[in-house]
Amino acid sequence: MQSSHKMTCTSDRDGDLDKCVTGDPNSGNLVDVPGCGDSLMVDDERHPRTASPRANGDDDSEAESHQDGRNVDVDPDTRRRAFNWCRDFLSGSWKTISEHEFRIKIVSGGLSNLLYMCSLPDNVQPAGVEPQRVLLRIYGAILQGVDSLVLESVMFAILAERELGPRLYGIFPEGRLEQYLPSNRLCTEQLGCPEISAEIASKMARFHTMEMPFNKEPKWLFGTIDRYMEQVTTMKFVREAHIKKFNKLMKYDLPAQLESLRSLLASTPSPVVFCHNDVQEGNILMLDGRENSSDKLMLIDFEYSSYNYRGFDFGNHFCEWIYDYTYDQWPFYKAKVENYPNRQQQVSHTPPPT
């Protein structure tokens, strides 16, 4: 049975998208949806009570890292290297300041990426087209390999040139300098807003029509699942409670279900296109100052992007309507199956062809 509770996006006095409310519209009992519209500005952080749990287990995604600012001193070596990178790659006013004047703040730190916001001092303005501040990404300890870094760097540069991602200001063996985007990340409930859903569809369509210089075979999906399956089936436990849970899980015969899925996709006429593969609310930014624009969203985090079945991108995104990853108690997410979009919701927000 469909719930009578519906999610609605409201606007402020200027018409800007302001917040989401949920409840029964017939009774007038509407309440604010928590978490929607949280600012991603480093200088005005809302610190989470726990680590930011994610579906993919990565707390180093750009959306998460933007909201995880912290006032921790940067070590002198990192500060010196960051200063040199900004001076050499950004030029302009960056070449006129001293290391003492250089401003750097930790945004997020982890094993896969270390992120910092670097900026000019308040009394120094850009001399030309150079930015006032940038996001510095330094590759971390668990490097995925040279090949994957090359592919990600090429992908990031191409998407930046096509204005589908943040601008790229500099790239070097240890990391890169990216555009810093004052923005808000979406919350789960906002995915159902008609105007937001329509723009997400438009962004995905642009991805799906791109020609990219990568392997055109859809190897990513089952390559990833096969790795996960191998990890699951070879796990060993000592505690009796864990052994019982594992044996119960194995009764579902996951390998057989995987083969069934593989056969189903092989017989499904879904074209292979360039896919984002992770269009969830945490990877969608609403850019500051564009709340009234039809081009107010930007997709980020391209680490999973690859050629894949187009239907996967659609299906994965619609599944994200169900999950709330901001839940701060175990298992650190909540699922509301009733929020899965019906057929009308899935197709009614598609923009007309141009």
UniProtKB/TrEMBL annotation:
One family name in Pfam for this protein: Choline_kinase
Region named Disordered: 1-75
GO molecular function, one term: ethanolamine kinase activity
Any one of the GO BP annotations: phosphatidylethanolamine biosynthetic process
Keywords: Kinase, Lipid biosynthesis, Lipid metabolism, Phospholipid biosynthesis, Phospholipid metabolism, Transferase
Major enzyme class: transferase
InterPro entries referenced in this protein's UniProt entry, alphabetically: Kinase-like_dom_sf
Keyword Glycoprotein applies: no
Pathway involvement of the protein, from the record: Phospholipid metabolism; phosphatidylethanolamine biosynthesis; phosphatidylethanolamine from ethanolamine: step 1/3
EC numbers: 2.7.1.82
Keyword Lipid metabolism annotated: yes
GO annotation, cellular component aspect: cytoplasm
Residue ranges, compositional bias (Polar residues): 1-10
Comp. bias regions, Basic and acidic residues: 11-21, 63-75
Family: Belongs to the choline/ethanolamine kinase family.
Protein name: ethanolamine kinase
Native source organism of the sequence: Triplophysa rosa
